[in-house]
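Methods: example folding runs. The two proteins below were folded one after another, and each record is reproduced exactly as written to the output file, sequence line first and structure-token line second.
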Amino acid sequence: MTSLRIPGLVFLVLLVNCASDSTGDSDGRDSGTSGAAGNGQGGTGGTGGASGNAGSSTGGSGGSTNVCQDLSGKHATSLRAAGECNPNLAADQCGVSATLVDDCGCPVLVNLSATGQLDAAEAAQDAWIGAGCGPNPCGTPCDLASDARCMQVDIGAGVCVGG
């Protein structure tokens, strides 16, 4: 590498050289190798691996409004689907979920035999919580239904309710 006497240009040359020698990992969190010590004129110390900042974000949105609105909507829709039941069946379908919660963090009533809807609701809830969007304390105690049942809301369609 050629040393130039223009301080800004020397720094730029070292910065470019440092970027090509980076040992940062693929997610960009580790810094690169330190820069060259200079040529007896005090050196530049090291730039701390400028290329280490090039990685992409791997975390959640940190509660971004648009992302949270989308995830909250998907969570609510999946909870409604998990709470659908068939009032024409004699079997007891409804109960309190051990893992699913509403916006306030309270357990919800679901159709315990609807495994597909329960799995979808858990996936939506994991994304919602993982992005930092919820649950959000509502300041009221959770109302745990002691007697869950399927209430008819349309011909052949029902929803799990507490009684």
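Second run, written to the same file directly after the first:
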Amino acid sequence: MKKISLSIVLILVTVLTLVITMTSNVGPKEHSQKQIDTIGKDDNEMRKKKIIKQKFNPGENSSGQNLDLDFNLNLLDGQTKALYSIENTGNNTITLHFTTSQLYDYEITDANQNLVYKYSDGKRFLQVLKDERIEPGESLEYEIMLPKLEKGRYTLVVYSAAKDLANSRETLELEY
């Protein structure tokens, strides 16, 4: 009986830890010297942006759907946030399939293409199946909080975590 009770307590602690990890807004890891060196110190620094917009049409996904999608990435609120959107530009409803609770990921690299920050690092996502339907002319939008960075040039790359959209990358060049 004690063995069963201990197992139940361990399962509950694990689930609670996952929930807390997923709901917390965790910033860059503090123990990485490279990341510490690239975290910004001045919120008021001016940032410049260059938006690269591309049309993504991978043909058909594994479900046989023709994917007419347009991906966009724009900066918001004094450039402390980014808005990543996936628009259905076709005439048919598109269903995106997710295998975890993660809906997107993003990476920030410096001018030397060194990884400075990756959203999913240090996070855990629930193993759940989820489908998102996008009707013709509609879009999914994700607001992304960007970490503070030191003065310099960076590249922000955002992509969908949907099963059939592994190559759905949108890029912004940032200059702080």
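Comment on the second run: Residues 22-65 have pLDDT under 50 and may be disordered.
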